[in-house]
Structures are given as structure tokens and as C-alpha cells.
């Protein structure tokens, strides 16, 4: 029997689980966020994008705009001379790593958004990580183990 002061409730089968959880009495307790990976990945994309803009446009400006010859001066001897300098090795390896990580993180987000099945998502991400490791590994090896003396100079 209800009294005039009791609030009227929707008709249910008189079971507690038939009522939706209210905001002041949720069914499960609030759990704190377990990780901040997505936040840090989002921040990385912004900062690496800015760094890549500086590195790439600096590279293009130095390679093409400072010299009147432009792309016509680029040869194996030119690259060997350039990679003999630790400055250019660091510049190029930073561009390589940032571009791979930035692009890989972007592809990871696309895979998460468009791959419908967990199994497909797993295999696509596995292929992505393997390809990134391969490209970064081979690119870093080429940059760091390069011997400028092995390239014949232009005559």
C-alpha cells in the first residue's frame, strides 16, 4: 500500500534489476582510469607533428633553397659527404623515427576506428608493428653504419 508522500515508481516485475540505475546509485562503482596511453599518444601526435614540420621544411630549405643548383647537386657523393657529419645523421634519424612513429600511431588509430573484428584488429596492428620495426631498424642501420669512404667521389 502506498502513501501520499511516497514517490510513484514505474510498474516493474518487482525485481531490483528491472529498474535502470540512477545517477546517484549506479550499479557498478566508479573505477579510476587505468591508463593514459591514448592521452599520451594524442599529445605525441601533436608534438611530433610540429617537430616533423620543422625538420622536413628545414631539410627542404637547406637542401633545395640555399644552393642555386637545387636537386641537381644531389648524388651518392653528396649524400656520403652529408652523412659523414654527425649533425646530419642525427637530423635524418630523428626525421626517420618521428615519421615512422607518427605515421604508425595514425594508422593504429585508423585500424581501431575501422577494423570491426578483434581478430582483424589484432593482425593488422601486428603487421603494422612489424613493418615499423623493420623500416626503423633498416633505416637506422643504414644511417648509423654508413661509411662515407666507400662511396667514390664525383669527378
UniProtKB/TrEMBL annotation:
Annotated compartments: Membrane
Domain of life of the source: Bacteria
Keyword Glycosyltransferase: no
A Pfam family that the UniProt record links to this protein: Sdh_cyt
Keywords tagged on the record: Heme, Iron, Membrane, Metal-binding, Transmembrane, Transmembrane helix
Coiled-coil ranges (or none): none
A Gene Ontology molecular function term of the record: metal ion binding
TM region positions: 40-66, 122-144
GO CC field: membrane
Name this polypeptide is given: Succinate dehydrogenase
Organism whose genome encodes this protein: Tsukamurella asaccharolytica
